[in-house]
Amino acid sequence: MLGAMSLLGRIFGGASKKLPTHVDDANFEHEVLASELPVLLDVWGPSCGPCKQLEPIIIDLAGRYDGKVKVCELSAAGSPHTSARLAIQHTPTVLYFQRGEELERIHGFRSSLFHAQTIQELFGIEG
Predict the structure, then answer these.
(1) Segment-wise mean pLDDT, segments of 10 residues, the chain, 127 residues
(2) Distance of alpha carbon 8 from alpha carbon 26, whole angstroms
(3) Measured between alpha carbons, how far is 79 from 87 in angstroms, rounded to an integer?
(4) Which of 47, 50, 73, 121 is deepest in the core (most CB within 10 A)?
(5) Three-state SS letters, 60-103
């Protein structure tokens, strides 16, 4: 089953856009920790207004960094074990991973430019 954010992205984002990879309790280790690419993980909540504002930015980043950074989304409510493991206390929370290690954690809504600058600073990748 796709996450709500992925479903909305498919409905409103158009078929040609690269969408974030859906992550849940079952695939977190494989998709995030074992990823060969650096990972941006957006942890969102279904009733979170700032999460809804962040969604088009995350979809844009997924397309812009396709093949360079794996952009993922995880529903905090739908993945309680992973949310607890990551000690998620607020949504949205965006985490940056490389080689299975968390490098950065951002709470709240931030602009596309902010995330692009963070990706360049942490991973040395321009979008």
Answers:
(1) 50 66 98 98 97 97 97 98 98 98 98 98 94
(2) 21
(3) 12
(4) 73
(5) HHHHHCCCCCEEEEEECCCCHHHHHHCCCCCCCEEEEEECCEEE
CA-to-CA dists, residue 25 to 3, 32, 47, 115, angstroms: 12, 11, 20, 25
> Which pTM was predicted?
0.87
Inter-residue contact 22 to 2 (CB < 8 Å): yes
The pLDDT value recorded for residue 127 is 80
Catalytic machinery residues? 48, 51
pLDDT at 17: 76
40 closest CA partner among 59, 53, 26: 59
Residue partners of 10: CB distance under 8 A and separation at least 6 = 2, 19
Return the DSSP state at 19.
P
At the second CATH level, the architecture of 4-10+18-123 is 3-Layer(aba) Sandwich (3.40)
Query: According to the model, what pLDDT value does residue 36 have?
Result: 98
Q: Are 43 and 86 in contact (CB under 8 A)?
A: yes
